[in-house]
Amino acid sequence: MKTENTCPYCKGLGWISLKNGVKKCSCQYKNLTDSIYKRMNIPKKYQDKDFKNFLPNKKYKHHLIIKRLKDYVNLEEYKKGKGFFLVGNPGVGKTHLAVALLKELFLKKNIAGLFYDTNSLLFKLRASFDGVESSREILEEVINTPILVLDDLGSERLSDWAKDILHYIIINRYNDLKPMIITSNIKLKGKSEFEESLEERMGSSIASRLAEVCEILPVKGQDMRGSRLLELQEK
């Protein structure tokens, strides 16, 4: 029986007939609500970010990056523990793309991942030692979530304690074939006269594991945050 809330496309069946079969109706996909954003720990600043409102620049081949990320979801490559290492200068849209991928996985595959700025995660874990929250609970959530985004990894020099924590997280996820989406301003491996690599900051064992399970996607472009600041200063 048709009700007021029945989907006008599938008539409440949940499936739409095609020439070559059927496909799941869009009404069957979960909606992103405030509780879902909270569950995935996506900051308010990025809750409206998706692939549709990422403005691609052909010069920097952004359209190919978006296609690759969408293919990753459609081909279900995450089931093999594969992820991405999005590397590029500050302000080029790495976090936007990482959040868009998280949202795409939820909307199309009903997979609720977890987002953490790396420094915020380390700060939260340190604070947990004061009894505000159990560090074990936080670590278990980070290690066991089906998809983990570690944003801005390696942006600062790490203490031995921070290195140990990140090693523990990455090695456990690596061993359990749980994918990681990592954004960073520094390259994964190699040496440079001007900047350290993640390998130099965290060690070769971690860098080699990440290189094995994360496809490196260089994200180039202009610093959108810096451009906006310049516009405001010129007004």
> On the 0-100 scale, what is the average pLDDT?
87
Give the CATH architecture of the largest domain: 3-Layer(aba) Sandwich
What would the CATH topology of the largest domain be? Rossmann fold
What is the molecular shape? globular
Q: SSE order in H/E notation?
A: EEHHEHEHHEHEHHEH
**What share of residues are in beta strands?**
5-15%
Poorly predicted residue ranges: 229-235
The CATH class label of the largest domain is Alpha Beta
Number of domains: 2
Task: Explain the overall architecture.
With 235 residues, the chain is an alpha/beta fold. It folds into 2 domains: 1-30, no CATH class; 31-234, Rossmann fold (3-Layer(aba) Sandwich). The chain is built from 9 helices and 7 strands. It has helices at residues 34-40, 62-74, 94-109, 118-128, 135-144, 160-175, 198-202, 204-213, 224-234; strands spanning 15-18, 21-24, 83-87, 114-117, 148-151, 180-184, 214-218. The strands form 2 sheets. Strands 4-5-6-3-7 form a 5-stranded parallel sheet. A two-stranded antiparallel sheet has the order 1-2. Helix 2 runs parallel beside helix 3 (94-109), helix 5 crosses helix 6 (160-175) and helix 6 (160-175) packs parallel to helix 8 (204-213). The radius of gyration is 20 Å and the shape is globular. 26% of the residues are buried. The model is unreliable at 229-235 (pLDDT under 50).
